[in-house]
Amino acid sequence: MSRSILLFTIQDYAALASLVGALIVVSVVLFLVVTSSTEEEKHAAKEKVYKARGRYFFGLVGVVVVVLFMSLRLLPYPSFQAEADEVVTVVGMQWAWKMATGVTDKTPAEFAGSNEITLPVNKSIRFMVTSADVNHNFAIYNSSGVLVTQTQAMPQYYNELRYDFTEKGDYEILCLEYCGMAHPYMVGKIHVE
Amino acid sequence: MIQIDSVEKQQHRKLIVTWSITFLLLFPILIILGLLMRLNQGEWMKLNIDTFYALMTLHGLGMAGLLFSLALAALHYLIGTRYARLSVKTGYFVYFLVLIGVVGLLIATLIGKFGAGWYLLYPLPFKGGSWASWSTGLSIVSLIILGVAWLIGSAHVVYALAKEYGGFTKLIGWQYLGKEEPKEELPAIVLITTISLVPGIMSFLAGAVFLIMNLLQFFEPGLSFDPLLLKNLVFFFGHTLVNITMYCGVGWVYTLLPEFTGREWKVNKVLVYSWNATFFFILFAYFHHLYMDFVQPLPFQYAGQIASYFSTVPATAITMFGVIVQFYHSRVKWSIIPTAFLLGTAGWAIGGFAAVVDSTISINKVLHNTLWVPAHFHTYMLMGVVLFIFGFLYYLVYTNQKQRIDENARFGFWLFVFGAYGFLLMFYLGGMHSVPRRFSDYGGIAITSTHEMGAFLARSAAVCVGLLLLGLLMMYGSLFAKLLKKHEPE
């Protein structure tokens, strides 16, 4: 997923939406500063603002309900995802990643895996993610530096993360939950072929 | 409204001046810790990795604790001098407990190098840390002391208000929901204080359970608790603490702003519905911190997004429109106080909007624990809560007219605001470019563009923090001298 004018990332849309929100707020502030130089009788001013507020209230509730309805159907959780083609077990530990294909019957501490793995392109992968010690976060970055998905690696629990790699290349694994001293150096790699 | 004599009023003033001076001394020190972190990330200086994380822990705990403590003290002052009889002695007891807790945290982080981060994500404090073992125990005990201080301070205020206004349901305005107009008017600050502090008390109790479990683990390393349960407890505590700090600030804006605009801001049925709804949104929004824990029960994930989204309705349609009514064609004189309150509301809205974007589960999947997170909460705290606090501090020291002629303070104020927004912009750009948060440096990232972008934004942020500190210094010139004067401004 390269960063081009035609193809925006989710992060770009989030930033754009937040920028629009911030500009609206700044416009309201400027409007209030400009209009404050002339006086209007307080009841008349109140009535005007309350009229706008009524419309705003129903508009906002409408937007909230619609966005909730749409976005709550696009969840990353297993029950919202299709069956996977391949399973990968991932164990986070201070401060390395262990990965291997298949489901393991070993405990996270005993599990043997590598911090590099090769996976097929255009297949649905189910990552079974856990931790051998403290909380970590299994985050996948593409080669352009875009975070494409993530889940927590928590001791005593397995989080199931599905992802389809639609482009070949090298993907980097970073830890996105602070886990102690070498946290920023806890890295891994996925080769997609 | 209560009548208190001038002696008691002066005692309350002494207490809030003590708090204010403490705040003004600690606030820039904690900012400098953040600056050191950004300089290290920008590769302009080299901190030891354990020092970086000890400073990060102190910066986070210090800021969250300091801002809430000052907010609680401000409410104690305003309520104690106007609405209900509050004990100054209890106020000092809370102050000294907080000081003891702060000293404990300073020793644990600066000497013991405790660096588990401000939310002590279990079981991190006990596993693989480079910090001294005793510093973990000292941090937990210090946090318990802080929690007890806040619990006592909050419970004292709510109890005194309930006694004054005739029961808890009166404090949350239910008398306005009937057909008849209530006989006694409920000041907005009383309603908002209650709606903020009661969830606060609930979250302090959850925090106490969390901390006691951690203390047990400290003394008995063989114990093992459920990390998901402890994650829920600590985020309920931490999120609520930060969230209600903002609402406490909103409480005094409702009371003080009308003095500058000349327009009253009264409790009515709509306001009561709105703040009662906010009570529940405060309690349930914390679930959005656990979206990336896929094993968390699904209804909780839904609750997190629904509560976060709907919390925008009362916040914007009622409070922010209330602020608009205050200013619109009001001929307000733009001194620092109303400016700080208007810009503080704007910062709350801007940070809040970015937070709501991040509270969308399908977006959180690619923004969680990137710099987007500190981006929005720093906006909310620095350009929201802190501006409300400066508005309040200027209220303590200046008459409206005097503020308008203090050019230094005004220039300093604007420098602070522009520096802060520059600093915040670097966080947002970092989040947009997937730069991770809580990285001492970006040298371990194999993707060159992410490494370079992270370091460049950190350097730019450090420059902006320099401007922000300069602005702060200019404001301090007038604030300090006037706070130390014996009497209130005429």
Description:
The complex is a heterodimer of chains A (193) and B (490). Chain A is of the alpha+beta class and 193 residues long. In chain A, the strands form 2 sheets. In chain A, strands 3-9-8-5-6 form a 5-stranded mixed sheet, with no helix packed on it. Chain A has 2 helices and 9 strands. The model of chain A is unreliable at 1-5 (pLDDT under 50). Chain A has 2 domains: 10-71, no CATH class; 83-192, Cupredoxins -  blue copper proteins (Immunoglobulin-like, Sandwich). Chain A is elongated, with a radius of gyration of 24 Å. Chain A starts with 9 loop residues before the first helix and ends with a strand. Chain B is an all-alpha fold. Chain B has one domain: Cytochrome C Oxidase, Chain A. Helix content of chain B is 75%, strand content 0%. The longest helix of chain B has 36 residues, at 6-41. Chain B is globular, with a radius of gyration of 22 Å. Chain B starts with 5 loop residues before the first helix and ends in a 7-residue tail after the last helix. The model of chain B has no long low-confidence stretch (mean pLDDT 94). At the A-B interface, α1, α2, β5, β6 and β7 of A face α2, α7, α9, α10 and α11 of B.
